[in-house]
């Protein structure tokens, strides 16, 4: 219909073949989105109001919750628009902007998990120097570096999308805009847009995962050197929440990558479901994991619920 109209809006896609029950599918999505907003919002309120949580570990956790909120607020309007209102059209510029935020926030999330691993590494390897190494100004610089890396590194492949002509089909395969989805619709040389993301993924997600793995090998080495079994368990317990969040994030990233690379013959619903798992599962689980496994946050929640305010 729009084959000759390069500036025509793109069409988002929900669950192909299940359009008749989109309004029913939207109910669990709506509940999950509300849970993500509530869970991560509560974490941010707790960290801001409870002075016992004004420590580097919790500042990084606040960054993680903010990133999860950002990602959720970026995808939620179009996903619910498609499922609830059958609003499939999206202006090209809005699509490119959404794509920019989705990919940059994914890199930010990986960077925050790396920063959290650095925090645990310093806390366990150099406990006496922890407060002098991770001073507030250094935490802010790390946070700023993580943000800059995410928001600057994704500019080169996103910018060309704004001036590419689009003379193929304007139908996207998701209910949100992904760079790899949009670039395939361009009637232009997309070699750079194919190569750059592969290099970027290697230098961000893959490199971050390798550094996190290496830091935990060193942490484990330190923990095994602790004589007391009780102290060993106590020290490792401070890492359980972070390890869980890291595993959830990178397993979903790897799963999505494998489906895109090797699942060309997999049903469309598998691709779509995997992309939703990637975008919804980590932000949904992160606040739950930290609430269950972190005693300080549990205490803070109890104080909040019982109406106490801390000085």
From TrEMBL:
<keyword id="KW-0807">Transducer</keyword>
<keyword id="KW-0472">Membrane</keyword>
<feature type="transmembrane region" description="Helical">
    <location>
        <begin position="142"/>
        <end position="164"/>
    </location>
</feature>
<feature type="transmembrane region" description="Helical">
    <location>
        <begin position="100"/>
        <end position="122"/>
    </location>
</feature>
<keyword id="KW-0552">Olfaction</keyword>
<dbReference type="InterPro" id="IPR050402">
    <property type="entry name" value="OR51/52/56-like"/>
</dbReference>
<keyword id="KW-0675">Receptor</keyword>
<protein>
    <recommendedName>
        <fullName>Olfactory receptor</fullName>
    </recommendedName>
</protein>
<keyword id="KW-1003">Cell membrane</keyword>
<feature type="domain" description="G-protein coupled receptors family 1 profile">
    <location>
        <begin position="39"/>
        <end position="290"/>
    </location>
</feature>
<dbReference type="InterPro" id="IPR000725">
    <property type="entry name" value="Olfact_rcpt"/>
</dbReference>
<keyword id="KW-1133">Transmembrane helix</keyword>
<feature type="transmembrane region" description="Helical">
    <location>
        <begin position="30"/>
        <end position="47"/>
    </location>
</feature>
<keyword id="KW-0297">G-protein coupled receptor</keyword>
<dbReference type="InterPro" id="IPR017452">
    <property type="entry name" value="GPCR_Rhodpsn_7TM"/>
</dbReference>
<keyword id="KW-0716">Sensory transduction</keyword>
<feature type="transmembrane region" description="Helical">
    <location>
        <begin position="195"/>
        <end position="219"/>
    </location>
</feature>
<feature type="transmembrane region" description="Helical">
    <location>
        <begin position="269"/>
        <end position="290"/>
    </location>
</feature>
<feature type="transmembrane region" description="Helical">
    <location>
        <begin position="240"/>
        <end position="263"/>
    </location>
</feature>
<keyword id="KW-0812">Transmembrane</keyword>
<comment type="function">
    <text>Putative odorant or sperm cell receptor.</text>
</comment>
<comment type="similarity">
    <text>Belongs to the G-protein coupled receptor 1 family.</text>
</comment>
<feature type="transmembrane region" description="Helical">
    <location>
        <begin position="59"/>
        <end position="80"/>
    </location>
</feature>
<dbReference type="InterPro" id="IPR000276">
    <property type="entry name" value="GPCR_Rhodpsn"/>
</dbReference>
<dbReference type="Pfam" id="PF13853">
    <property type="entry name" value="7tm_4"/>
</dbReference>
């Amino acid at each position: 219909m729009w084959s000759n109209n390069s500036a025509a809006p793109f069409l988002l896609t929900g669950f192909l073949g299940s359009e008749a029950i989109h309004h029913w599918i939207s109910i669990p999505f709506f509940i999950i989105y509300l849970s993500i907003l509530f869970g991560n919002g509560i974490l941010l309120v707790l960290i801001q109001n409870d002075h016992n949580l004004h420590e580097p570990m919790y500042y990084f956790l606040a960054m993680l919750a903010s990133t999860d909120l950002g990602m959720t607020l970026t995808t939620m309007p179009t996903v619910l628009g498609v499922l609830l209102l059958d609003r499939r059209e999206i202006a090209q510029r809005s699509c490119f902007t959404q794509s920019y935020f989705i990919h940059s926030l994914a890199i930010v999330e990986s960077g925050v998990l790396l920063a959290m691993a650095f925090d645990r590494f310093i806390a366990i390897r150099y406990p006496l120097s922890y407060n002098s190494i991770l001073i507030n100004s250094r935490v802010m610089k790390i946070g700023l570096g993580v943000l800059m890396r995410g928001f600057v590194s994704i500019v080169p492949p996103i910018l060309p999308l704004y001036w590419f002509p689009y003379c193929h089909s304007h139908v996207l395969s998701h209910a949100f805009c992904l760079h790899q989805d949009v670039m395939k619709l361009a009637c232009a040389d997309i070699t750079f847009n194919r190569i750059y993301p592969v290099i970027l993924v290697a230098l961000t997600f893959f490199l971050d995962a390798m550094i996190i793995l290496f830091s935990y090998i060193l942490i484990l080495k330190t923990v095994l050197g602790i004589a007391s079994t009780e102290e060993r368990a106590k020290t490792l317990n401070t890492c359980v929440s972070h390890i869980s969040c890291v595993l959830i994030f990178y397993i979903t990233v790897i799963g999505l990558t494998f489906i895109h690379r090797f699942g060309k013959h997999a049903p469309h619903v598998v691709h779509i479901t995997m992309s939703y798992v990637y975008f919804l599962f980590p932000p949904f689980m992160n606040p739950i994991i930290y609430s269950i496994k972190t005693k300080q946050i549990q205490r803070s929640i109890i104080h909040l619920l019982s109406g106490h305010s801390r000085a």
